[in-house]
Amino acid sequence: MKYRKLGKNGPEISVIGFGTWAIGGGDWVFSWGEQNDQLSQNSIRAALDAGINFFDTAAVYGMGHSEEVLGKALKGSREKAVIATKFGLVWDDKNNITRNGTYGSIIREAEDSLRRLGTDYIDLYQMHWPDTDVKAPVEETMRAMEKLVQDGKIRYVGVSNFPIALLDEALAVRHIDSLQPPYSILAHQVESDLLPYCIDKGIGVLAYSPLASGLLSGNYTFDSRFDEQDWRSKSPSHTGEGFMQNIAIVEQLKDVAAQLDITVSQLAIAYVLANPALTSALIGVRKPEHILNALAAAEVKLNESVLTEIKKIAKSARIVMPINE
Questions:
Q1: What is the 3-state secondary structure of the chain?
Q2: φ and ψ at 185, to 5 degrees?
Q3: Where is coiled-coil annotated (predicted)?
Q4: pLDDT value of position 323
Q5: Which of 3, 62, 96, 214 satisfies CB 3.0 to 4.6 Å to 12 for a cystine?
Q6: Rounded mean pLDDT of 116-140?
Q7: What is the mean pLDDT of the chain?
């Protein structure tokens, strides 16, 4: 496994990270369907054994369930792992989700996450989405994060899905160690502005959905359909005309991958890791083979001609991410 430093101040983390969105289980609005907790824990331990040290979760994944599963799997191995979780998506007793970046809410969420993870510190604490509901100022959110750092509850501060304007506001208060944007061959808009910005500011970049929520896994065909409990069954990227268009692109990418003697998923991971802004590509995992099959991508180097060909093929991609991932 290869490792890169997270921004200018952060820890060394594996270039392939373990994403835990799916292992939250089936009982929430952005579920991937029912999961087997024992299989999820086996996957986490397999990743550790393979040299992966970065594990990314969020409080909202399964309404805390993903954090609990991760905490159980890492019991006895905490010192080997860099744990990242997210806050800012809170839910009520009916599982209605709202965005909240207020000081008090963040402090409470951190304590809840620490308890579910079974640890006394979180390595990287990230704001999941900008607060568009309560509309707390970014300055208030950053003050709460700084308090958690000073108290030893968290070690590094990150944000997810932030545009440059909000990053500027956050940086006016304190340094941001990482940004987590959606980034893949099929969703490459961040290449023009966000990624260069992060290089300039010394912010690490963690790419989520580098396999475009499964589209770039190579496992789907034009006839594939998603279970109705899976959020992708309602996504315009994974249904209807958008799905057909994206699968057509993936079929062309398979030819590129075959020429390099790698899989299309390995090609997709290598593509995002080729960008100099990237620290780690977060791979969604439900089974040990998902993470083990991704490992070889860390060794793949794509030359400029291949990168240019990939961009040309993917020009017409249609990707829409769920608004509360």
A1: CCEEECCCCCCEEECEEEECCHHHCCCCCCCECCCCHHHHHHHHHHHHHCCCCEEECCCCCCCCHHHHHHHHHCCCCHHHCEEEEEECEEECCCCCEEECCCHHHHHHHHHHHHHHHCCCCEEEEEECCCCCCCCCCHHHHHHHHHHHHHCCCEEEEEEECCCHHHHHHHHCCCCCCEEECECCCCCCHHHCCHHHHHHHHCCEEEEECCCCCCHHHCCCCCCCCCCCCEHHHHCCCCCHHHHHHHHHHHHHHHHHHHHCCCCHHHHHHHHHHCCCCEEEEEEECCCHHHHHCCHHHHHCCCCHHHHHHHHHHHHHCCCCCCCCC
A2: -55, -35
A3: none
A4: 46
A5: 3
A6: 97
A7: 93
pLDDT at position 272 is: 98
* Domains of the chain: residue spans and CATH: 3-218+264-301 (3.20.20.100)
61 is catalytic: yes
How much is the average pLDDT of 304-324? Answer: 79
Q: Label residue 153 by pLDDT band (50, 70, 90).
A: very high
Angle between helix 138-150 and helix 164-171 axes, rounded to 10 deg: 50
Q: What phi and psi values does residue 156 have, to the nearest 5 degrees?
A: -135, 155
